[in-house]
Amino acid sequence: MTTQQIDQARAEAFAGQMMSLLNNAFTGLLVSIGYQTGLFDTMAELPPSTSGDIALAAGLNERYVREWLGAMVTSRAVEYDPVAGTYLLPREHAAFLTRAAGPDNMAFFAQYISLAGHVEPLVVECFRKGGGVPYSAYPRFQQLQAEETARVYDAALIEAILPLVTGVVERLEKGIDVLDIGCGQAHATNLMARAFPASRFAAYDISPEGIAAGRDEARRWGLTNARIEVKDAATLDEPGRYDLITAFDTVHDQAQPRKALRNVFEALRPGGVFLMGDIAASSHLEENLDHPLGPFLYAVSVLHCMTVSLSAGGEGLGTVWGEQQARALLAEAGFTGVEVKQVPGDILNNYYVATKK
């Protein structure tokens, strides 16, 4: 038997890459803890401080805070002065770790690591037996999605995302019929309903918990122009009812995306517009090699988006279905003219503007 020689330098480089992966993966869990406990928010307001001072200000146990700080220092997220025994969160780092950072806060996403770990054994079984993991198996997913999207919508929906559709803001001000599919907790719908009281809004999602939360928010805001209901976009049967339909980061999750998109096309009036926000990526793997979030997006697909669709006997498009496939499915649904637009600073999403001729 011959032994194939290996490139030792390449092997050592990959070993280093694997060590970085382990360090980063476990650091990610502690970043999640730092976000959830408010430690980053607390440290952003403090001068260089001891672990005791930080724990006191955050209302937390000092021993846990001290060990957490060890990980933050060795991962270079926090600076440490060994002489004074003090810790400092640099402002440049706080800009991506605190709630005050808004949509730039990347610590929020670390919470998905433990959520994915919860379903990992179920996904492993799917590798062996096929099928998928149902939406109901994901604790806190609805809560995390609502918090994630609210940060984006609060900052950009009215001022940056809707204006991507030429003339739609003026039409909304005058009064049109709007539907949001896969609405989650309907926060985007409620924002639009509040901003455009002359228009009429409907929102559909398959999650009863999400719909209940959306209705509660609409009541708190005193909205009378928002109708929020449990309904699957694949069962939508409302021909010619809407002037604008939106779908934000939801079409790739659908069990029956082709049917859902066809239903959207049929539900629009002539001249109506479908505004679809979805992941900015290529349908071709080789074109995603330099995508800054490539590994993350494919991992999210395996651990959530693809498997949830497959659990319902769906297509399993996956998170990274990509622009080429998105255009193809929109054309198959009946849309002949599709524009792809971006919001400056948003590297995660494409916005597809599809008009019904």
What does this structure look like?
By secondary structure, the protein is of the alpha/beta class. It contains 13 helices and nine strands. A seven-stranded mixed beta sheet has the order 5-4-3-6-7-9-8, sandwiched between helices. Helix 10 (208-220) links the parallel strand 4 and strand 5 (226-230). Helix 1 (8-37) packs across helix 6, helix 6 crosses helix 12 (294-311) and helix 7 (141-161) packs parallel to helix 9. The protein is globular, with a radius of gyration of 23 Å.
Structural topology:
Elements: H1 8-37, H2 39-44, H3 51-58, H4 62-74, E1 79-81, E2 86-88, H5 91-94, H6 111-129, H7 141-161, H8 168-174, E3 177-181, H9 187-195, E4 200-205, H10 208-220, E5 226-230, E6 242-248, H11 257-267, E7 268-279, H12 294-311, H13 322-333, E8 337-341, E9 349-355
Parallel strand pairs: 3-4, 3-6, 4-5, 6-7
Antiparallel strand pairs: 1-2, 7-9, 8-9
Helix pairs in contact: 1-6, 3-4, 6-12, 7-9, 11-13
Q: What structural category arises from helix and sheet content?
A: alpha/beta
Q: What shape does the CA trace take?
A: globular
Provide the low-confidence segments as ranges. none
The main β sheet shows up as: 7 strands, mixed
- The helicity comes to 40-55%
Number of helices: 13
Order of helices and strands: HHHHEEHHHHEHEHEEHEHHEE
Distance between the termini: 67 Å
Features:
two-stranded antiparallel ribbon; globular; 48% helix; alpha/beta; 7-stranded mixed sheet
